Amino acid sequence: MTNVQQINFSKEKLDFVKELRLEIGQYFETNNITKYGNVHIFFKSLIMVACYLTPFFLMLTGVINTFWVIYSGWLLMGVGMAGIGMGLMHDANHGSLSKNNAVNKWMGKSLYLLGGYPINWKFQHNTLHHGYTNIDGHDEDIDPAGILRFSPHKPLYAIHRFQHWYAWFLYGLMTLSWVVSKDFVRLAKYRNMNAPLNNSKTYSRLLVDLVISKIIYFSIFLAVPIIFLPLPWYLVVAGFVSMHFVSGLILGAIFQAAHVMPSSEYPLPDDEGNLDNNWAIHQLITTTDFSPKSRIFSWFIGGLNYQVEHHLFPNISHVHYKKIAPIVERVAKKHELPYFVQPNFASAIKMHTRMLKSLGREK
Predict the structure, then answer these.
(1) Residue 44 above 50 pLDDT?
(2) CA-based diameter of the chain, in Å?
(3) Above 90 in pLDDT, residue 50?
(4) What is the DSSP-derived secondary structure letter of residue 294?
(5) pLDDT value at position 6?
(6) How many CB atoms lie within 10 A of CB 86?
(7) How many CB atoms neighbour CB 137 within 10 A?
(8) Residue 219: count of CB within 10 angstroms of its CB
(9) Cα(185)–Cα(23) distance, integer angstroms
(10) pLDDT of residue 316 exceeding 60
(11) Which of 19, 74, 140, 172 has the fewest CB atoms within 10 Å distance of its CB?
């Protein structure tokens, strides 16, 4: 890539990495299980797809036809949208859903169903976020619009003093921003970076694919309801926006509470692009787990409460994170390395809010 500083992680303290990989490998071998997803993840995916599409079909077929029932349907679709993203699409685009690459490829395309663009998402998330977590100028998850400050290395403006209040509203706009404009902005940015998005398609062809995908998405999920629902067009638009707001708020809270925390570090490379820690230790100091005992919550959010495990082993399906988390914690503590975890989601949100407030007042 061009226009991005090359990052070189340290080669020191690799004994932690070797021991951790050995123990995780032994866990799967001893229990004679695969690192990929199992029947439970596909069952959950069916539930989330049903939450997303069932209300939509009930609206269009007239089974539900009053405003508040239809509006409740849009809200449920937002929950289903987030669930599909976290529980199905996420694993698939990491290649951990199935050992069959074709299954991962096609299930990864479920992002189209949500209005997103898988090629952009995989580069932004898998390459930039996972590869350079919390590194300013590389990780786009800590580089939102200027009215949010997620890194101490970003400029501080007067409005940031209030970001711990208004950030939640902006989280709610996250997926709406993706489907309306951010995918186009990112594709243009990645073209300028000469990012390796697709070996068989030019950027011009990718742009055509992106435009077509947006036309199809907005035609199905916005134009068709405007035409067929027994409501004024502006109420349909309100329902569509509310769906995205619910989804965005869920996703924003889950992902930001894992990295923008008081315990999180924001390492900067030296002039030659070198960092002090190896990649695995870098993940430990920039990532936080939460709600390790909440089975239902973990089930809904696709195991993303185990962000430490996910960042260390993105090629392992989230259905295994609860079991391997104690191994990761034990090996980290053995090597006198940090392992950050919040006891519940409320505590994680509280600490994330505290971090937003701190970043908004830092001098």
Answers:
(1) yes
(2) 64
(3) yes
(4) -
(5) 85
(6) 23
(7) 17
(8) 10
(9) 42
(10) yes
(11) 19
Round to whole Å and give the CA distance between 155 and 332.
34
Question: Closest Cα to residue 175, out of 259, 127, 268, 240?
Answer: 240
Pairing of β 340-342 and β 288-290: parallel
- Name the residue type at position 54: T
Task: Please name which of 208, 196, 274 lies closest in space to residue 1, comparing C-alpha atoms.
Answer: 196
The residue behind tokens 């405007």 is: 226
Q: Return the axis-axis angle of helices 233-256 and 67-84, rounded to nearest 10°.
A: 30
Sign of the C-alpha dihedral computed for residues 242, 244, 247 and 252 taken in this order: negative
Contact indicator for 167, 260 with CB cutoff of 8 Å: no
Is the pLDDT score of 158 beyond 80?
yes
Tokens 């004994």 correspond to 15
Backbone φ and ψ for 98, nearest 5 degrees, come out as -145, 155
Other C-beta atoms within 10 Å of 165: how many?
12
- DSSP conformational letter for 222: I
Least Cα distance to 144 among 164, 167, 127, 161 occurs for 167
Residue with tokens 């299980």, as numbered in its chain: 33
Q: Determine the Cα–Cα distance for residues 344 and 213; give it in Å rounded to an integer.
A: 38
- Mean pLDDT, rounded, of the chain: 95
Tokens 């580089």 found at: 143
Burial 103-122 (b: 16+ CB within 10 A, else e): bbeebbebbebbbbbbbbbb
**Domain-by-domain residue ranges, the chain?**
14-359
Q: What is the DSSP string of 100-154?
A: -HHHHHHHHTHHHHTT--HHHHIIIIIIIIHHSTT-TTT-GGG---TT---STTS
Q: Locate 38 and state its tokens.
A: 């199992």
DSSP states of 236-264: HHHHHHHHHHHHHHHHHHHHHTTTSSTT-
Q: Rounded to whole angstroms, how far apart are CA atoms 288 and 87?
A: 19
Return the closest-CA partner of residue 138 out of 251, 252, 259, 268: 268
Total-model pTM: 0.94
Tens digits of residue pLDDT in 266-313: 999 998 999 999 999 999 999 999 999 999 999 999 999 999 999 999
Q: How many angstroms from the chain centroid is the CA of residue 233?
A: 31
Yes or no: say if 263 and 245 are a contact pair by the CB < 8 Å rule: no
